[in-house]
Design a protein that fits this description.
Oligomer: homodimer
Distance between the termini of chain A: 22 Å
CATH class of the largest domain in chain A: Alpha Beta
Strand order of the largest sheet of chain A: 3-2-1-4-8
Number of domains of chain A: 2
Number of strands of chain A: 13
Number of helices of chain A: 11
Largest interface: A-B, 54 and 54 residues
Shape of chain A: globular
CATH topology of the largest domain in chain A: Nucleotidyltransferase, domain 5
Structural class of chain A: alpha/beta
Order of helices and strands of chain A: EEEHEEEEHEHEEEHHHHEHHEHH
Chain lengths: 318, 318
């Protein structure tokens, strides 16, 4: 008989911790979130997560051991995979933190699976979002960083160490700006939010607020600010070039773009499409579609749940 | 009981037609080859292939219908896949030629599978060559063109239309030379043999022969010719950048490089490694190895046989 027990899904990011109890098809029953503590103590962060999980399970009326069919978690990378020992770039408190083992101790006898948050995002968009019924999908998050995950031949791709999908470090301009990864000319070095802001400031953009973000830059650009427009053209072009490369290498059907910067809409998508169409000319590559993500902030939670309820497709980690 | 009957493997390229009868583990029992006819008649090419197949089957002592467990063929791309309707760029006689159906008519009741030759190459190197026991492999052919095939999470990747692996059209220099695909700055536009020769001529290289090739350029470079050295540095750097991008996107363990240009050895591999190490800096990406192909000209035949004898891993086409 099919397991009908719900799944506990977790999304651990630099800004927020989120959790949900979902049906076996990924529909969210209840969810909750808290800000990610800034304290450097790894145990304080862990306890905050435990409290959040307790709250969401109570909200769902789940109090019995064994009432869950599994626990799926997406966490910022990089990580050791499938061991789920995580060192999220944007969460300094956790370095080599044994997240998967800790969750196993908390939920003994229950399957626990941990993967990169961008890989969970593409699993979510593939199972219930903009990549539904497609077999070859790149999911992208364009925000503080530029991350991604791949579905190829209908299966999630993990790669040698669970880090497949790092589209942010595809090289789009070999002589371009230095990247935080140590390389040069990576997509992320041009298209992450802070890179747009820094470039625009260098070109003379003077926002009203000292802590202005890419969202403020998008607003100025939408009012016709030339530097703002040029910053989004530059980032969109870099995205289009990287997507052309990924399409040629992986024979993609659809690229799903989410994350805060994707909210800029045609400011970003028009130059993206122009560069993609200039560089992807072979017939198979011209067919690729680029679409906005459909699940919004829930995508990672839905995908984390899918690591459990559709493990045959989304989990190869044992 | 396991099927112990041998496999007929076929490799159809712009220069030669090759065929082999192999054991169930890919070991070649007998093989033969003929030059590819230059005649534009598609049926003349097909009859030449039939004669070659008849010869190699006779050499192996196979005269009975049913003595084969299957027929696997690698053919130059692009193609429609899995239908095996082929239009090889370098074989103008065949445009939308129904290769798979023709082979089925020739071998009724026997499984017939056709894939891109670069995908067969990586299947061969993965099953019996330099990618053995590795789960995440990019196989590359650097020759008249720059092609490739991907093994990820231990399975061949076909992509939306069977064209995954087109590393030659990863963009390495967005403002670079025009590519035959219609794009600009593709790896192939810089690193294919004819691109090296054209660039070197533009820089003042004056070979003795009017029809000089990349092999002549490599020879001059090995004697210290500065333009020749610079041409291989430029191509090696482009290869290193594309491999860095592919490693980030696919989390590769090993890249196997074959094809005529790979014979240039350190002329090509030293600048390749330097560019790769400059651009692949994250820990997971630094682990990638680049190695020469091990099977030489047999790689595609061995992989074509593997489409049959290890179809679970190398064939997803029905």
């Amino acid at each position: 008989m099919a397991d009908r027990r719900p799944v506990l899904a977790i999304d651990i990011g630099g800004t927020k911790l989120a959790a949900a109890v979902t049906e076996r098809d990924g529909r969210v029953i209840v969810s909750a979130q808290d800000p990610t503590p800034r304290d450097p103590d790894p145990e304080l962060l862990w306890r905050s997560l435990c409290l959040l999980l307790g709250r969401v399970l109570a909200d769902a009326g789940l109090r019995e051991v064994g009432s869950l069919s599994g626990v799926g978690a997406g966490c910022g990378g990089p990580m050791e995979w499938p061991s789920g020992v995580v060192s999220p770039l944007n969460i300094p408190a956790w370095r080599a933190f044994p997240l998967r083992d800790r969750l196993r101790e908390l939920f003994p006898g229950t399957p626990v699976r941990v993967h990169n948050d961008a890989i969970c995002l593409v699993a979510g968009e593939h199972s219930r979002g903009a990549g539904r019924d497609r077999n070859n999908v790149l999911g992208m998050v364009v925000a503080t960083g530029v991350g991604g995950g791949l579905i190829l031949d209908s299966r999630i791709i993990s790669g040698a160490s669970g880090n497949a999908g790092h589209i942010g470090h595809v090289v789009v301009d070999p002589g371009g700006p230095e990247c935080a990864c140590g390389g040069r000319g990576c997509l992320e070095a041009i298209a992450r939010g802070a890179a747009l802001v820094a470039w625009a400031r260098g070109q003379g953009w003077r926002p009203g607020e000292p802590g202005a973000t890419a969202r403020d830059l998008a607003e100025d650009a939408s009012y016709g600010n030339e530097v703002g427009l040029a910053a989004f053209r530059r980032a969109g072009r870099a995205l289009g070039i990287a997507i052309a490369s990924a399409t040629h290498l992986c024979d993609l059907e659809v690229v799903v773009v989410g994350g805060g910067l994707a909210q800029a809409g045609r400011l970003l998508f028009e130059p993206l499409q122009a560069a993609l169409r200039a560089h992807a000319r072979m017939e198979f590559a011209r067919r690729v579609e680029v679409v906005p993500a459909a699940l919004g902030p829930d995508a990672c939670l839905v995908g984390a749940a899918a690591l459990i309820y559709a493990g045959g497709r989304y989990w190869a980690g044992g």
